[in-house]
Design brief:
The chain is α+β, with helices and mostly antiparallel strands. The protein contains three helices and four strands; from the N terminus they run ββαββαα.
Length: 109
């Protein structure tokens, strides 16, 4: 709710010195997410506040006790900045999606 600023979102951020983190990776049809191996325009527009990156991850394969691992690649929504948002989408886009609701910043609360 914009009145109480109860808003949820999830993005990854770098943690210098940390070797990684555990995630759940989902296999979803690439249809509206990827076009020719890169994030589609529709996906980028839907997740416009994030910096979208293709990242490697290690997938555990097999049953418990089996040490089968596979290097895979997936899309990760990462933290961006208000400045990068303005460069990418412009002030008008920001006003349409945030400003008109009284939100002055996406990332700097």
């Amino acid at each position: 709710s914009i009145e109480t600023l109860d808003i949820s979102s999830l993005a990854a951020e770098p943690d210098v010195g940390n070797q990684g983190f555990i995630v759940t990776a989902f296999e979803v049809p690439a249809g509206d997410i990827l076009k020719n191996g890169v994030p589609s325009k529709a996906f980028l527009e839907r997740e416009h506040e994030f910096d979208i990156k293709m990242v490697p991850f290690i997938e555990e394969r097999g049953e418990q006790g089996n040490n089968g691992f596979k290097l895979s690649e997936g899309i990760l929504c990462t933290r961006s900045t208000d400045e990068d948002y303005m460069k990418k989408w412009g002030r008008e886009h920001f006003e349409l999606h945030f400003g008109q609701y009284g939100v002055e910043s996406i990332w700097d609360w």
